[in-house]
Write a structure and sequence with these properties.
There is one protein chain. 30% of the residues lie in helices and 16% in strands. It is α/β, with parallel strands linked by helices. The chain has 3 domains: 110 residues, Rossmann fold (3-Layer(aba) Sandwich); 110 residues, no CATH class; 240 residues, Rossmann fold (3-Layer(aba) Sandwich). It has an 8-stranded mixed β-sheet with strand order 11-12-13-8-14-15-17-16, with helices on both faces. Strands 7-6-9-10 form a 4-stranded antiparallel β-sheet, covered by helices on one side. It has a 3-stranded antiparallel β-sheet with strand order 3-4-5. β3 and β4 form a beta hairpin. α13 packs across α14 and α14 crosses α16.
Length: 598
């Protein structure tokens, strides 16, 4: 079995080789034989034999997941169970792992059970798909049929909730939450959320039956009705049509237009936030040589304007979260300046930053870790008001109620009394957003706000953030590695690589006409729910990002770039060049102010 979080699954105090050797301990293999086998296994998963001598914390996320796969293969199993093996990885490393799994499946004949909430990833590997809901299989069949002609309303809803890079159809979300497993519903378990539910769905539970179209489905639309029940609806009656022609059981937000509007941003006005030449380092000890800098951000220039939504994308280790820390002033840059609302906040003391703290708030990645399990929702949302000195109890109550209404946690009086553990992942993230909005900030920094929740809830949370941004004239900065979501929910996209901004521009321009080779590589690695995926390897960027302790000279991407120019890219960092409509790129392939070659 390959577990979801490799860092938690591996022993942090044992070297990789020792942990691999544990697999053969019962076979009484000698040290030399165990070492040789460990090296062979690591080579099979694309790692060198020197990895045996390293500890888990010395490896990147992709390397750790490869080690987990090697350990699972150690005893030559017939079946490999993969539990969300790529959910914690960025898109390029994810593509590398999926290519590795395809190779293992074809070369060694290993059967695989792939557990995931990402149908696009499932299409990359799986011959058959089984869709589960509330402990039941809703649909099962060949991947081609399930992905292109889904029968079950829940499967249709999942497919429609996936943002796609190469489609003009915006994702829709599935409203509501799954039923409480301790209190099963009478009838179909999906019927409270299904837009095509009719009489038998409320009183009789459907069986999983084969359909004429191919995949088996658990829906009354495809089986004889109970005695005395009339056919009142069918799938073709619904007005929500999916791309396959089948109806969708999603509930799109009807108040929104079919095309997401671009914020009315005036880039000729003074920016709300101005970062100029900002470098942000972490310091680590290097033996007797003293401390060495981890160059997380290097000479970053970035302006954020009032009322716009900006997405920051890049691989793990590119500096996305450090950019968020710098904007939140959770550390002091080593150089450069940060201005907020025309006030320099770079070196101000904490006392001087009190106004800034009210105007800038954050939504963190993991709602399970960022919310105290010992506080009710009301206290969690109220706490920022208490910290900022709002003394009136009535005023705090009013603002907490307003914040919960904004994030659609209604009735607010009921949700206010609940503890986080009784909420779904999407509801917890709504509480986090309410907590961030209760001070009515001008800038909201959301660090991977949907990476820890399931696919059907992601679009709902992203729509909510966009709605709040538009209604409150809020500036929204979202940290993400999901380029498909960024296309629909951001006005501009910033691409970071090893602490440097390599491309920035309108979301449509960056996605549809990428210029930097790194941006093109990221886009090529994004999966689409296409059954043809499993017959081909995903396009990947070679290797992994360099260690920020030893950033390569020149353009840091040149060691992985297929278009690198020797003697230029490895010597100087390229000057930024503008290509119209605010689309800037830092690459020697495009001429800039400081020269460069075509």
């Amino acid at each position: 079995m390959v577990l979801q979080n490799a860092m938690h699954a591996l022993n942090p105090v044992l070297r990789i080789g020792e942990q691999l050797a544990e697999c053969w301990r019962l076979d009484a293999l000698g040290r030399r034989e165990s070492r040789n086998r460990a090296s062979e296994l690591l080579e099979q998963v694309g790692l060198g034999p020197e990895i045996r001598l390293r500890y888990p914390h010395e490896l990147s996320g992709g390397m750790r997941q490869r080690v987990m796969i090697a350990m699972a293969l150690a005893l030559k199993p017939d079946l490999l169970i993969l539990d969300e093996p790529t959910s914690a990885l960025d898109v390029s490393i994810q593509a590398q792992i999926m290519n590795l799994l395809k190779n293992l499946c074809s070369e060694y004949g290993v059967s695989m059970l792939f557990i995931t909430h990402d149908l696009a990833l499932a299409s990359d590997l799986c011959d058959r798909l089984a869709v589960l809901y509330a402990g039941q299989v809703r649909e099962i069949g060949p991947a081609e049929k399930v992905l292109t002609a889904p029968n079950d309303p829940y499967t249709q809803a999942l497919l429609n909730s996936i943002p796609r890079l190469r489609s003009n159809t915006r994702p829709t979300f599935l409203s509501g939450t799954p039923p409480d497993p301790s209190d099963p519903l009478l009838g179909c378990r999906f019927q409270p959320r299904c837009s095509v539910a009719f009489e038998p769905c409320q009183t009789h539970e459907p069986a999983l039956v084969e359909t004429k179209a191919g995949p088996s489905a658990r829906c009354w639309q495809y089986q004889p009705l109970p005695d005395g029940v009339k056919q009142e609806a069918n799938l073709s009656d619904s007005g929500n049509e999916s791309e396959s022609g089948k109806s969708s059981s999603v509930h799109p937000n009807s108040s929104r237009s079919e095309t997401l509007p671009v914020a009315d941003v005036h880039h000729n006005e003074d920016p709300l936030v101005e970062m100029k030449g900002v470098s942000f380092y972490y310091w680590v000890r290097r033996g007797f040589l003293g401390n060495a800098p981890v160059k997380a951000l290097e000479l970053v220039d970035l302006n954020l304007y009032r009322g716009e939504s900006v997405a920051v994308v890049g691989e793990s280790g590119s500096g996305k979260s450090t950019l968020a820390r710098a904007l939140l002033r959770l550390g002091t840059p080593v150089q450069g300046r940060i201005k907020f609302d025309n006030q320099d906040v770079t070196v101000k003391t904490e006392a001087d930053l009190r106004y800034f703290r009210q105007r800038v708030q954050a939504v963190f990645q993991d709602p399970y870790a960022s919310l105290s399990p010992y506080q009710q929702v009301y206290n969690l949302v109220e706490e920022p008001l208490v910290v900022q000195g709002v003394k009136s109890v009535k005023e705090r109550q009013r603002r907490v109620k307003t914040a919960l209404e904004k994030v659609k946690l209604e009735p607010t009086s009921e949700f206010a009394k609940l503890y986080p553990h009784v909420l779904s992942g999407g509801q917890r993230q709504r509480v986090s957003i309410a907590r961030g909005m209760v001070l009515e900030p001008q800038l909201l920094v959301a660090d991977e706000p949907v990476s820890m929740i399931d696919a059907s809830s992601r679009a709902e949370i992203l729509y909510l953030l966009r709605e709040l941004q538009e209604d409150s004239d809020l500036t929204l900065l979202t940290i993400t590695h999901d380029l498909a979501s960024a296309r629909y929910f951001a006005d501009r996209i910033v691409v970071l690589y090893l602490g440097r901004v390599v491309e920035i521009g309108p979301a449509s321009r960056v996605i549809d006409s990428p210029m930097h080779p790194y941006t093109r590589g990221l886009l090529a690695a994004v999966p689409e729910p296409d059954p043809a995926n499993r017959h081909k390897m995903r396009s990947v960027i070679d290797g992994e990002p360099a260690n920020a302790l030893t950033v390569p000279s020149g353009c840091p991407f040149h060691v992985r770039c297929p278009e690198a120019i020797p003697g230029i890219c490895d010597v100087t960092f390229p000057t930024k060049s503008n290509h119209g409509e605010g689309h800037d790129v830092a690459c020697h392939l495009y001429p800039g102010e400081g020269g460069g070659k075509n």
